[in-house]
Amino acid sequence: MYRSLDSEKIIETVDTLAHSIGGRFPESGLHKVCQELLVIARESHERSIWFAKPQIWLRGITGALIVIMIGGLGLVLTKANWPSATFDLILLVQVSEAAMNVFILLSAAILFLATAESRIKRARALKAIHELRALAHVIDMHQLTKDPEQLLDRELESTSSARKTLSSAELMRYLDCCSEMLSLIGKLAALYVQKFDDPVALAAVNEVETLTTGLSNKIWQKIMILYSGPANRRG
Question: What CA–CA distance (Å, rounded) separates 44 from 173?
Fold first, then answer.
């Protein structure tokens, strides 16, 4: 029960976070981004089920094509006019070379068909993981303009600076929400490869988790600056 990710629990967590952001920052772009994350989380639930489920129809078509190819080769061999005389060395070399070429081509075709399901799933997984990676960068863009130094030191603000609209506590919560969203993105990425053991997709998921962890660390540096600010020191 506790050895695998539960996609429904992830959706519930994202939904709770979206309501929390909507309550605190209803008109913010971050709320819209979290709503988009909720849509992706629901799509991830369906995708993870598809990745884990064997595609019977595709396997049936693949098996039929392989049988047809092997059967066709066997039919050609049985219908061939083989010489009755004993092969000489030159003819033996020619026949062996031709047989080896046919065997290599047939093996390559069978391997291509046998791995078709895995390649199709990999392509879809990589596309979905790329979507999560892009969303992580969007979240990072939202927190980039939230400068705790400007909030703590009014003298650093210039007339061209963005107008401060968040208090210290609100900014801490805003940044914390960004960090939570990045963490959830990592969990959604891991959901894709939970029951789909593909090394390429797994490497892409690891890259997303590394990215979200790095971005979250930058956010927590800002949170720590706010936490050590004058207002919190007085408390």
Answer: 27
Q: How far apart are CA 79 and CA 179, in angstroms?
A: 69
* DSSP-H helix ranges across the chain: 7-24, 29-52, 56-79, 89-114, 116-144, 148-152, 168-192, 199-227, 230-234
Residue type, 114: A
Whole-number Å distance between alpha carbons of 34 and 203: 25
Among 47, 38, 52, 48, residue whose Cα is nearest residue 184:
38
Out of 10-19, 62-71, 170-179, 194-203, which region has the weakest mean confidence (pLDDT)? 62-71
- Indicate the domain borders of the chain: 7-48+118-234, 56-116
pLDDT 10s digits, 120-144: 899 999 999 999 999 999 999 999 8
For residues 128 and 44, give the distance between their C-alpha atoms in angstroms, rounded to a whole number.
8
Model's pTM, two decimal places?
0.77
At the topology level, CATH places domain 7-48+118-234 in: Glutathione S-transferase Yfyf (Class Pi); Chain A, domain 2 (1.20.1050)
